[in-house]
Each structure stands twice: as structure tokens, then as C-alpha cells.
TrEMBL record:
SUPFAM superfamilies named in the record: Nucleotide-diphospho-sugar transferases
Domain Glycosyl transferase family: from-to ranges: 314-496
Keywords: Endoplasmic reticulum, Glycoprotein, Signal
Name by which UniProt lists this protein: Glycosyl transferase family 25 domain-containing protein
A Pfam family of this chain: Glyco_transf_25
Signal sequence, renumbered to the chain: 1-20
């Protein structure tokens, strides 16, 4: 028959290309990039590090409608590494830079969906024609930090399988439920899967963003992105079209979460811009630095330059123990990503202190002090912590610094930390608010008793609080702290500060200090939280698990973690490591929202159902519904809050 010579020719071509002889399956990596300059270096770096022979992989790359340097980045990368791969398809489109009816580069129009489906179909067709066993689709803001991802997914032997990716919120790259109309359906399985309370590979109705397709699986030849199936009536969206195609072909779809495979960025809404997406991705980089493994950018692309600043402060101090280099490096890397110029201050190491050295510094215990939960005395770690902060207060006064930032090295930054802090300080300046200390991260004890600050919705009057992990301090505040001569009657620094703004509940402690006139506020929502809490596997404390301050025997206090260091059951609004991605509204609009005079913002206005939409609904008194339909112009890609 005519088919035999064609098959023979194809076999000879594959053998010449090295595809037929190798025992490892051939894989196509489909790269579809638009306005991805912010994430491409880390995305491409992750692809480079996949533990799989490049001679068994082909690259299919397309880019279009860019207003940034995506095309140039991809060209630079392909020029550096392209020869290492078995084949490269390069499909750039320089013009047009916009779709005719799009409101912004993040607006998903019908034309954009169709073009994306056509591109994915081209990649799928190429993979079949090339004789590949698999094709991996991976969005350019999905970072596969696990270099074994390909091998692990192939080892499952499943026709369509996705590695579950982690994000800053409840968003991930799978649905556990879908309605008969093709919309997202809440299920009891989503959160246990997302949080890895149940582990394994689970059948789901849809995966998206990053997934592997086995082209040799039974029925795989029926899979298509475009045109949609003849009977298709669901929303015109590439991920839903593909989910329907799998269902129509009788092909199962799975998501696997036994391993940590990597991260995906929470999509921004259609009314937001590329800067919002860049800020979100920076937060994802910071989360990866904390939770690990960290992302690594490709060395073969030129990244946009960073310009670090002190954000209007005279100094940005980072207190860090020299014997904790991992914490120091992570903190400095985090500040660099946010373009914040920080200066490391070597912390006073409590392990190096003995009782005579402590007393020679003029340190003595506050009479009657006991930890409020364990009843223990002051530890050497707490002495070292206090002295570290004290040295900064001394420098502030000695140099006449008008305002500074102080960080400890175990800070987890909330989303858009830099932008939100800049906006907060602008508002404080505009209101001409006198202040001595502003907490940026803390553990509230009685948040319901804290008063809002008139004209400043992002600020509250600070009540009794734990932790000193992040705060702003003025020159006047530093002078007040030093004037109280705290070394002569020392207690932990996070107990001392509430005494100085007269919010400590222990009257006996307060009686030793006067005046208690520190003017203290707190950001709300909080802008920072601890990287870990007592009970977490990675939790480590140099203050809680230390020797008593006057004990030189080397005996460590047997204390698994003070109540201070436990995760609070309360959330400080949406902050405090709720990993909120809140909209940064203009100052006047925030005023009007809180005053109830703003125009109502409703779900139909393309806000999605993410944390930002939830925040808006809470302000307007609206609630989300059980079924989440996508309004016109709002797609599955904008789902960043999946309800249980």
C-alpha cells in the first residue's frame, strides 16, 4: 500500500535524527510567550536545569503581541542553547503589539484565545509530526524548580498529567470540579489536594498552565486545541477547550502532588497591567526563597537592571547572626529582588555571652520578669537580640538619622511589600502624622481593641504586640527608647516596646519605665510576617531555645516554642502571611471606599474571584456565590481564589 513507503521514510528520518535508537522518550517543550520579560529568565533557567538529555528534546517557541523585550530575550537564549536541542522551531511575530479590542495587555479577548489555541495546536501538530512521545506545555510564569519533573511525570504512565504547582494564594493549575456548562465547581477535595494533606496522583476534570501529554496514549490522536470539538458549547477558553477534548476522547486527566515541582504566578485581572504582574512575580520569587527550592535565573539572558534604594529612609538595617549565613543570604536576596538597599548589622550572638560579660555591659534583669507563657527567665538569646536592636537605636541617635527601617533576618514579605510601604509612608507624610515607631510585622494580642487612624486606612494605633521582625523608627523614637535606660532593667525587646507606648498589660513591669510616651502605630494589613512558626518543621529560634541569661553551664532551656512564636489563629485582615495580593488603590479611592461614597465595584467588572476581589466584596458587603460563572471577558486564567 502507499502507506508503507511513507512509514518507512518516516522511520528512516527519525532514525537519522537519533529519535528511534535512544531508549529515552522524545519530548517537545512548547514555549508560548507574551510580555514575559519579568519571568522569562527564571522560566528558561528552570528549563535548562531539567534532568533530561537535550538531544532528546525539541523546542517549539512562539511569541507575539509584545510591548516588552520578550522576543529579544528568547532570541538571546535560543542563540546560546538552541544547538544543544534536537530541533528548534522559532515562531516570532513582531507586529501587531496589541489585539484590536483589548483593554490592556492582560485582557483576554476572544481573538486572543483563538490565536493561543491555534498556536498550541501548531505545537501539538509539530510534536506528532516530529515523532515525539510527549509534549510539555508550560506557561512562561510557571517555574519548574524540580529538575526531575519530566522524569517523574513520565514515570506515572498517564496520558495527561500535571505537576501541582504552588502559588502565593489558593490558586493552582488544576480544577477538582467542573459544572456541566464548563465552569469551575467547588469541591471538598480541592484544598486537601492543594495543601498536600492528601498526596498522590488524582483524577481531575482539568489541568492547565503546565502539563504533560503522552502522544502515544490510546485516544491521544483525538486531542486538539483548535478547532474545538464539533459538539463544544463550553466557554471559549483554551484550557476548557482542551479539558472538553480529553473528556470527549475518553482520556483521563491527573494532577500529581507527591513532590514539590515548582511555582506558578497568580494571574492578574484584565484591568491590571504588566507592572502588577511583575510585582506578583517578585513576590513569588520571595516565597520560593523562603519555602524552597529557590528559583535560579538563566545565565544566557540579559535581565533588566535593578536600581536599589532606601525608599526614603536614611538606612535600612538587617539584623543577622553571622552563624546563620543562609538566613542572611536569603534576606539580602529578597531585598535585592525588591530593589531595596539594605545594610547588614551583625547580631550580638547570645551563645557568645557569659554572665560576667552581660553584667559588664551594664545589663541586669528587670525585677520579677518571667515569660508570659512558660514562666522562664530571660535567655541569653533574648539578651543578644535586645543588644542588637539597641545598637541600631544608638546609631540612629549618634548619626541623627531622621527615620530608618529595621528588619530581622527571618522576615517573610507580603505581596508588593515595597509598593505598599511607599504608599503608607506617603500617606503618613501627607497627613503630617507624628510618629516614633511603625510596626510592619508583629503578632497582635488584642487586635479588636486597636483604633484606626483617621485619614489613614492602612494604619492603626498599636496595641500590645509580640515580635520585632520589621519596623520603622524615627529619630525621636530612638531617643525615647535610649532615654529609658532599658539595659539596667532588661526584658525581651518585644516586651519592652509595648511598655514604652504604654500598652503592656503588666503594671509592675511598666512601673520601672517613665515616661511611656512612644508614639507607636502599625501597618494594617501587616506587610511582613515570620518565615516560620513554632511547630513548623523549619522553625528555628535563637532566643526561645537558649540558655538562661545568668547561667554559664551551657544548659539550654527545654522549650519547644513559646506561645509568642505560634501561628496566630487570627488574620490581620488579609495580611500576616495570608499571602494576600491586594489591589493598591489610589489614596482618594481608598478614602471613598472606606467612607462608603465610592462607586460600587461588582463582580461583573472583571475583578475575578481572587483575594483582591474578595477584599472588594467585603468592603461593599457583597459575597461570592456557590457557583462561580465567568462574566464576559473574565476567564479561567483569572481564577486566583478557588473556594472549597
Amino acid at each position: 500500500s502507499r502507506g508503507i513507503p511513507l512509514l518507512l521514510l518516516l522511520g528512516l528520518w527519525l532514525e537519522a535524527a537519533g529519535v528511534a535508537e535512544s531508549p529515552l522518550p522524545a519530548v517537545v517543550l512548547a514555549i508560548l510567550a507574551r510580555n514575559a520579560e519579568h519571568s522569562l529568565p527564571h522560566y528558561l533557567g528552570a528549563l535548562e536545569r531539567l534532568d533530561y538529555p537535550r538531544a532528546r528534546m525539541a523546542l517549539w517557541c512562539a511569541t507575539d503581541h509584545n510591548v516588552d523585550n520578550t522576543t529579544e530575550m528568547l532570541q538571546e537564549w535560543l542563540a546560546a542553547v538552541g544547538d544543544d536541542y534536537a530541533a528548534v522551531v522559532w515562531r516570532p511575530e513582531g507586529e501587531p503589539r496589541f489585539y484590536p479590542d483589548e483593554e490592556s495587555p492582560k485582557h483576554w479577548t476572544k481573538e486572543r484565545h483563538q490565536f493561543l489555541m491555534e498556536l498550541k495546536q501548531e505545537a501539538l501538530t509539530f510534536a506528532r509530526d516530529w515523532g515525539a512521545h510527549y509534549i510539555l506545555f508550560a506557561d512562561t510564569d510557571n517555574i519548574l524548580t524540580n529538575n526531575q519533573t519530566l522524569r517523574l511525570l513520565m514515570g506515572q504512565g498517564l496520558p495527561v498529567v500535571a505537576p501541582m504547582l504552588d502559588s502565593q494564594t489558593y490558586y493552582s493549575n488544576f480544577w477538582c470540579g467542573i459544572t456541566p456548562q464548563g465552569y469551575y465547581r467547588r469541591t471538598a477535595e480541592y484544598f486537601p489536594t492543594k495543601n498536600r494533606q492528601r498526596r498522590g496522583c488524582f483524577r481531575v476534570p482539568m489541568v492547565h498552565s503546565t502539563f504533560l501529554v503522552s502522544l502515544r496514549a490510546e485516544g491521544a490522536d483525538q486531542l486538539a486545541f483548535y478547532p474545538p470539538h464539533p459538539n463544544y458549547t463550553w466557554p471559549f477558553d483554551d484550557i476548557i477547550v482542551f479539558a472538553y477534548a480529553c473528556q470527549a476522547a475518553g482520556i483521563s486527566v491527573h494532577v500529581c502532588n507527591e513532590h514539590r515541582y515548582g511555582y506558578l504566578n497568580v494571574p492578574v485581572k484584565s484591568h491590571q497591567g504588566l507592572e502588577d504582574e511583575r510585582v506578583n512575580f517578585i513576590h513569588l520569587i520571595l516565597e520560593a526563597l523562603v519555602d524552597g527550592p529557590p528559583m535560579q535565573a538563566s545565565a544566557h539572558v540579559t535581565r533588566p537592571s535593578k536600581r536599589a534604594s532606601k525608599l526614603g529612609f536614611d538606612e535600612v538595617f538587617v539584623i543577622s547572626l553571622a552563624r546563620r549565613p543562609d538566613r542572611r543570604e536569603r534576606m539580602l536576596a529578597s531585598l535585592w529582588e525588591m530593589e531595596i538597599s539594605g545594610r547588614v548589622v551583625d547580631a550580638v550572638d547570645g551563645r557568645m555571652l557569659n554572665s560576667s560579660a552581660i553584667r559588664s555591659l551594664g545589663v541586669d534583669l528587670l525585677p520579677g520578669y518571667q515569660d508570659p507563657y512558660s514562666g522562664r527567665t530571660l535567655t541569653k538569646g533574648e539578651v543578644g537580640c535586645f543588644l542588637s536592636h539597641y545598637s541600631i537605636w544608638e546609631e540612629v541617635v549618634a548619626r541623627g538619622l531622621s527615620q530608618v527601617l529595621v528588619f530581622e533576618d527571618d522576615v517573610r514579605f507580603e505581596s508588593n511589600f515595597r509598593g505598599r510601604l511607599e504608599r503608607l509612608m506617603e500617606d503618613v507624610e501627607a497627613e503630617k502624622l507624628p510618629w516614633d515607631l511603625i510596626y510592619l510585622g508583629r503578632k497582635q494580642v488584642n487586635p479588636e481593641k486597636e483604633a484606626a487612624v483617621e485619614g489613614l486606612p492602612g494604619l492603626v494605633v498599636a496595641g500590645y504586640s509580640y515580635w520585632t521582625l520589621a519596623y520603622a523608627l524615627s529619630l525621636a523614637g530612638a531617643r525615647k527608647l535610649l532615654a529609658s535606660q532599658p539595659l539596667r532593667r532588661m526584658l525581651p525587646v518585644d516586651e519592652f516596646l509595648p511598655i514604652m507606648f504604654d500598652q503592656h498589660p503588666n503594671e509592675q513591669y511598666k512601673a520601672h519605665f517613665w515616661p511611656r510616651d512612644l508614639v507607636a502605630f502599625s501597618a494594617r494589613p501587616l506587610l511582613a510576617a515570620p518565615t516560620h512558626y513554632a511547630g513548623d518543621a523549619e522553625w528555628l529560634s535563637d532566643t526561645e531555645t537558649s540558655s538562661p541569661w545568668d547561667d554559664d553551664s551551657g544548659r539550654l532551656i527545654s522549650w519547644s516554642g513559646s506561645q509568642k512564636t505560634l501561628r496566630s489563629p487570627r488574620l490581620d485582615m488579609a495580611g500576616s502571611s495570608g499571602h494576600s495580593l491586594q489591589p493598591l488603590l489610589p489614596r482618594e479611592q481608598r478614602r471613598r471606599l472606606l467612607a462608603g461614597t465610592a462607586d460600587p465595584i461588582r463582580p461583573g467588572h472583571h475583578l475575578g474571584h481572587g483575594p483582591s476581589a474578595l477584599w472588594t466584596c467585603l468592603l461593599s458587603g457583597e459575597t461570592t456565590q456557590r457557583w462561580i460563572p465567568f462574566p464576559n471577558g473574565l476567564t479561567a486564567k483569572e481564577q486566583d481564589f478557588q473556594n472549597p
